[in-house]
Structures are given as structure tokens and as C-alpha cells.
């Protein structure tokens, strides 16, 4: 496949998109920056930078607690951000939107507040073999505390989950299904909707780790019918340190607070505390106010740019890169599911992924190398690590061509 191939029709003006990301003007080691580490964290458009700066420069104050103008303006912006998230997920109510520090904290909240009080010895939690550590370790901890057991859906050689094994794992002892929506290590898009339906047919609630899904396609938690959904701001063109837990109101209302402190209470005496209603009972302390405002600006940017246009563009880049990589001798792609999103994990014969990433960096190409916080995935495929290129709205076919050239350069250096 050559760089001269005709681009498919797309509604995304990539030149205009790139102009909105100041960091893309940088050079690295004298080379134009080609940023392909987006599955770890994406860069930020000027609109997000301006929203965060504007908060601190013009109206920052603590929220929910002051009657002065700055506090009221900050509160309005913070709660407006919650409404933006509700619309992005199509949640039924802002009561179902909990601000967290990210996907990891959101999952830990569910593990501690939803799962731990309910689990009995020999109860079971089902997860998959392609989970990020954030959707493994919290459940291991809860199982250790309660005597429950962790069951794992196996993954096939192409990176897809074994659906027959999944069905067989569900039983009368299953108390929760925790499932990654899109694999950060393989790019696999899991068929979450039918899996949710199968779990619900047995009365099993479902949590989705949406960290790698939220940046890439439209979400509708009501259509999915998931019980919990978690995603992170820094992967959706927003700031780090902010994330979201969506939960169905009936579950959240029944869950005890995870942390205690200011702003999650209605009244406190030394004898008794009455907790605030949703969503505030899960948001103890001063929140990441500018983070929530920046996240809202990021989601607004995604929606105004066109989420479907972004998805189509990224899919073209992934297919373009995959086709070229398959033509390079000695290159092995890890994860070849029929439906993938955003991620190309690969190996070059005889070269450690860390060496690949180091050589790439000298060409201005930023990728990730390692186990990607998914060590069980690496073990399943018999590798210590992979090199991972991942795309975003601002990447181009020229970026992919530079990536491919860097692969050939590595092969030349290492023989």
C-alpha cells in the first residue's frame, strides 16, 4: 500500500483539527512530532486549554459552598460539566454521573461500595483475559476480602473473547461481570451489548471499562443497558485527574458512600451523619473543578468535531497501518480481531519493544512499549511486551508512513 492511495471520503478536516493542537507544532530530536501514544493519553485542543485557563483566570472558587459570585459561577460551570457528560453518555439523569479521578478510581468505587458489601464466600466475579490492570486488581482485592472467586473469560488467538466459554462461566453464583469495552493492549472491540444481555438474563449486573471506547465512538449507556460505565478525561482530549463513573440510579442509591468528608453530607453530628443525595454522596471533598470543566470542553470539542467522523478517520488510519505492517517481513501484529479500534500492537523479530520505541523516538515518533498495564494479555500471547501505536483524530496517513519508515529503520539497525 502506498502513501499515494486515495483517501476515502471523510467528513473530518484533519488539517483543521491538527491546527487546534498546539503541541503538534513541536519537533522532537529535530523531527516533526508524530504522536502515536494516544491509547495512553491524548493531546489537548486549544479549546480545552482555554477552558481550564479561563476557570483559573476568571472565576475559580470552591463549588457548592459559597454565596459569592465566583463560587456561584464555578458551581454553575461544574454542574454544567456534569450535564455535558450526561448528554455524552445519554444517561437518564445527572444523578447518575459521578466525577472521579479517572477510570481506575471509578472501578475501585464500584468494587468497594457495590461489590464488597454484597459478596459472600464462593460468590464469583467474571472478568475477561484482556482486561487492563484497573479492571483486575480491584476485583482481586475484593475477592481476598470476602472469599469470593475471580473467574476469567479466555481469549482466542486472534484477540477475541471466547463467547462460548463466557456463557458457560455465568451461573447462580455470579455477582458481577466486569468487562473492558475496547482492549488497550490489542484494540479488540468486545461485543458488549449481547454480553450484557446474556448477563442480565441471569440477573447479573455489568460494569464496562470504557477508557478506550469513549475517545473513539458514540456511547449510549441506556441502549447498552450497562449498570456501570467508567471512562477517563485524559483519553478523551481532556485533562488528567478527572474521570466519570456512570451508574444506574437504583444501584447508586443502594450503595454506601465510598469516602467520607465535606460536600457528601446533608448533616453531621457526633452521633450521626446523614448523607447527601446523588451524585454528591460519592464526591467527598473539594473536587477537581477545573478538571471537570476541561472534560466538558473536551467532550464538546469531540461532539462539535463529529464523533462519527473521528471514528471513520481513525478506522481508516488503523486499516492503512495494518495493511502496511502485514507486508513487512519480520513484523508480527498482536491482536487481529475482526473488530478493532485505534490500536496496533506489534513486534519486530529480534528487537525488544523498548528498543523499538527508543529508535522511533529519534525519528520523532512517540509510541508506547511495555505490557500496557495488561500483563495477563502478554502472558497469554507469550511475549514480555509489545510496541503499540495508537491513533487519534489529529493523526494522518503521513504519520503512518513515518511510522512505517521507522520500522524499516529499526530493521536496518538491528539487522
Strand runs, count? 17
CATH class of the largest domain: Alpha Beta
Q: What is the architecture of the largest domain at the second tier of CATH?
A: 3-Layer(aba) Sandwich
CATH topology of the largest domain: Aspartate Aminotransferase, domain 2
Beta-strand residue fraction: 15-25%
Radius of gyration: 22 Å
User: Which percent range fits the helix content?
Assistant: 25-40%
| Number of H/I helices | 14
| Fourth-tier CATH superfamily name of the largest domain | Type I PLP-dependent aspartate aminotransferase-like (Major domain)
- Categorize the overall geometry: globular
State the end-to-end distance.
24 Å
Main β-sheet description: 7 strands, mixed
Structural class by SSE content: alpha/beta
- Adjacency order of strands in the biggest sheet: 4-10-9-8-7-5-6
Catalogue the unreliable spans. Answer: 1-9
Average predicted local confidence, pLDDT = 95
Number of domain modules: 2
List the defining traits of the structure above.
415 residues, disordered N terminus, 14 helices, alpha/beta, globular, Aspartate Aminotransferase, domain 1, 4-stranded antiparallel beta sheet, Aspartate Aminotransferase, domain 2
Explained architecture:
By secondary structure, the protein is an alpha/beta fold. Helices cover 39% and strands 16% of the residues. It contains 14 helices and 17 strands. It has helices spanning 14-18, 46-59, 69-89, 103-115, 137-146, 163-169, 192-201, 221-224, 249-254, 289-305, 307-325, 353-362, 375-380, 397-414; strands spanning 27-28, 31-32, 34-35, 97-100, 124-128, 149-153, 174-180, 206-209, 228-232, 243-247, 265-268, 273-275, 331-334, 343-348, 365-366, 368-370, 386-390. A 7-stranded mixed β-sheet has the order 4-10-9-8-7-5-6, with helices on both faces. The longest helix is centred in the first third of the chain and has 21 residues, at 69-89. The protein is globular, with a radius of gyration of 22 Å. The chain starts with 13 loop residues before the first helix and ends with a helix.
